[in-house]
Amino acid sequence: MNPEPFLQLDRVIHEKGRLAMMSMLAASPRLSFTELRDALAMTDGNITAHARTLQEAGYIAVTKVFQAGRPLTTFSLTESGRAAFAGYVRLLERIVDQTRGQV
To answer: For the whole prediction, is pTM greater than 0.70?
Structure first.
């Protein structure tokens, strides 16, 4: 088995919480803080920390507005985030393909 694909995995995406967030955002054009938090059963602090990391990497856009007098934070994938996630999935597929028939 070639270990090289494992070394190429994007560490920003690879962490379980960030992978879950990226997966959900890849399936939806935009999700609110509350939608992500509740769907993933994460704490406010976890969502905030993971969102900050993904935003700093340029993978998600964070929008903050007031709706009906209440703050609303939404997240969406950027073009580079969508491309990075697609590349991550392709790399995982290569890893899985390498192990087929070996287990």
So the answer is: yes
